[in-house]
């Protein structure tokens, strides 16, 4: 199952392509938030998913209404604690909502992440700290791999692990947390 333990919001999932995506994601192990303006169709999709022994909920949302989009995000986080995947099958005119929804989610999650980052920073392994230290000094993945005697692929995997543990998306954010927590020294 490629999406085991992931939470996916699929807008426009009551019928058509959105429904197909929701069913496929559920089959691959995701917990699916079926969002649609047609509650009957959304509930039918949820029933199909549940009948296949998968987890899903229906949340009514008209993506042309900012308040409903915010409620969609809030309810998803309340039910599942987070979401990992957003499929914007429903559109607001010609403007896809992915950026709007993700921005709102990130803002809502930021305070919680900052608290968790402090704890997670302390759980970095010695190898991860060595990579973070080298990144802080401006070294590229290839140079770090050479210095540590591992493959560049290993360094990229360690960076991904660091980003996941710290809840960040970039080297700069990871280095900033490492410096703030006194885990690395850039001198």
Mean pLDDT: 82
The largest sheet has its strands arranged as: 3-2-1-4
Strand percentage: 5-15%
Q: In this structure, how is the largest beta sheet organized?
A: 4 strands, parallel
Q: Terminal Cα separation, in Å? A: 45 Å
List segments where confidence is low: pLDDT < 50 over at least 5 consecutive residues. Answer: none
Order of helices and strands: EHEHEHEHHHHH
Please provide the count of β strands: 4
Instruction: Using the CA coordinates, give the radius of gyration.
Output: 20 Å
Helix content: 55-70%
Overall, the morphology is elongated
Please give a quick description of this structure.
The chain is of the alpha/beta class. The protein is built from eight helices and four strands. It has helices at 16-27, 39-51, 66-80, 98-121, 126-136, 141-148, 152-166, 171-180, and strands at residues 7-11, 31-36, 56-60, 85-88.
Describe it for me?
There is one protein chain. The model has no long low-confidence stretch (mean pLDDT 82). The chain has 187 residues and is an alpha/beta fold. It has a 4-stranded parallel beta sheet, sandwiched between helices. Helix content is 58%, strand content 11%.
Q: What's the SSE blueprint?
A:
Elements: E1 7-11, H1 16-27, E2 31-36, H2 39-51, E3 56-60, H3 66-80, E4 85-88, H4 98-121, H5 126-136, H6 141-148, H7 152-166, H8 171-180
Parallel strand pairs: 1-2, 1-4, 2-3
Helix pairs in contact: 1-2, 5-7, 5-8, 6-7
Key structural traits:
187 residues; alpha/beta; 8 helices; 4-stranded parallel sheet
């Amino acid at each position: 199952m490629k999406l085991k333990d992931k939470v996916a919001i699929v807008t426009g999932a009551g019928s058509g392509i959105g429904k197909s995506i929701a069913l496929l994601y559920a089959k691959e192990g995701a917990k699916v938030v079926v969002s649609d303006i047609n509650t009957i169709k959304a509930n039918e999709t949820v029933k199909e998913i549940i009948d296949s022994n998968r987890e899903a909920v229906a949340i009514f949302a008209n993506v042309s209404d900012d308040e409903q989009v915010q409620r969609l995000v809030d309810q998803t986080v309340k039910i599942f604690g987070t979401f990992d995947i957003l499929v914007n099958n429903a559109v607001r005119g010609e403007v896809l909502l992915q950026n709007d929804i993700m921005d709102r989610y990130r803002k809502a999650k930021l305070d919680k992440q900052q608290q968790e980052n402090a704890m997670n920073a302390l759980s970095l392994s010695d190898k991860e700290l060595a990579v973070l230290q080298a990144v802080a000094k401006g070294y590229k993945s290839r140079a770090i791999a050479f210095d540590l005697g591992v493959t560049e692929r290993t360094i990229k995997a360690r960076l991904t692990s660091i980003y996941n543990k710290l809840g960040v998306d970039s080297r700069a954010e990871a280095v900033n947390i490492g410096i703030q927590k006194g885990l690395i020294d850039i001198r």
